[in-house]
Design goal:
There is one protein chain. The chain is α/β, with parallel strands linked by helices and 292 residues long. The chain has a single domain (6-291), classed as Spore Coat Polysaccharide Biosynthesis Protein SpsA, Chain A. Helices cover 35% and strands 18% of the residues. The protein has 12 helices and 10 strands. A 7-stranded mixed beta sheet has the order 3-2-1-4-7-6-8, with helices on both faces. Strands 5-10-9 form a 3-stranded mixed beta sheet. The longest helix has 22 residues, at 270-291. It is globular and about 50 Å long.
Length: 292
């Protein structure tokens, strides 16, 4: 059995600390190789209380945590300040683009995961696949044509052709050396200067441009997009809650609307689940009161 480290990277801010914990804990629960896991936590605005919540995972599992404070990264702050703003996700989405510059030189392969994911299969099955010489591996996005083309699928055809396979960037297995050779940040600067970034869907479209026809397509079960109840019987490996309904929804019973919602709640742990719900209620009311 291999004992090589399994490197996994997550990016999140202080409003997403609990889902980040749930994603990490799901990885740990569904593998026997817990001592090989290294989580690279690229975070910003993280409070000491929430940092302690994340650190608590090392009390349950023999995993290693590496911390990267993006608020102290001049490169991240510079890039995030100049790129088009993603109001729903915040500009932390750009952090994954500089993953090769954040991680140490000893990391040869890393799995990037969005924090709205639930893992329910041994992660090493994915992390140690043969990438066939490709720089990345990912799952084709089922609504890629709409993401790139928008209404009537007419927009941006001079940039992204809907006939080309398009991957969802919520899960990306990365060959770090080839990612580094691609000069992601350099290409990002060119795309911004030429007006491309202002027209496309943030970092996901951009990565599809960079790695066009150079990515390995993974089976759908490794990134089950918009995970619903119907997916449960298909034995998905990773659930990706991309839709409006989330397993941590602030409205009563919302977690019943998604695949494995009850499992997700207990993976997050009851205590953290309800604390996160209170956190979200407070944010929701603050926004509502500001608008009224």
């Amino acid at each position: 059995m291999s004992t090589r480290p399994i490197h996994i990277a997550l990016t999140f801010d202080d409003n997403f600390w609990a889902p980040a914990y749930a994603t990490m804990r799901s990885v740990c629960l569904f593998t026997h190789r817990r001592s090989d896991l290294v989580f690279h936590l690229c975070h910003r605005t993280l409070s000491e209380t929430h940092r302690a919540d994340l650190l608590a995972i090392t009390e349950e599992f023999p995993v290693k945590l590496e911390w990267y404070d993006l608020d102290r990264s001049d490169m991240f702050r510079d890039v995030a300040a100049r790129m088009p703003e993603n109001k729903r996700l915040s500009n932390i989405v750009y952090a994954r683009l500089m993953i090769d510059k954040l991680l140490g030189p000893d990391v040869e392969r890393v799995l990037y995961l969005d924090c709205d994911m639930l893992v329910r299969d041994a992660i090493e099955k994915l992390c140690e696949i043969d990438m066939e010489g490709r720089p990345i591996a990912a799952v084709r996005d089922s609504i890629g044509a709409f993401i790139t083309g928008g209404r009537d699928l007419k927009a941006n055809r001079d940039i992204l052709d809907p006939a080309d396979p398009y991957f969802n960037a919520g899960l990306v297995l990365i060959d770090v050396a080839q990612w580094r050779e691609a000069d992601i940040i350099g290409q990002l600067e060119v795309a911004l200067r030429e007006g491309v970034m202002q027209r496309i869907y943030y970092d996901q479209d951009f990565l599809n441009l960079v790695f066009k026809n150079r990515w390995l397509e993974l089976p759908w079960r490794w990134n089950t997009i918009d995970a619903r109840h119907a997916h449960e019987g298909l034995n998905p490996a990773i659930l990706h809650y991309t839709g409006e309904s989330k397993p941590w929804g602030i409205f009563a019973g919302m977690f019943h609307w998604v695949a494995f919602g009850r499992l997700y709640r207990h993976v997050m742990t009851n205590e953290l689940f309800y604390r996160f719900a209170r956190h979200r209620w407070k944010r929701w009311w603050k926004k509502k009161l500001r608008l009224s």
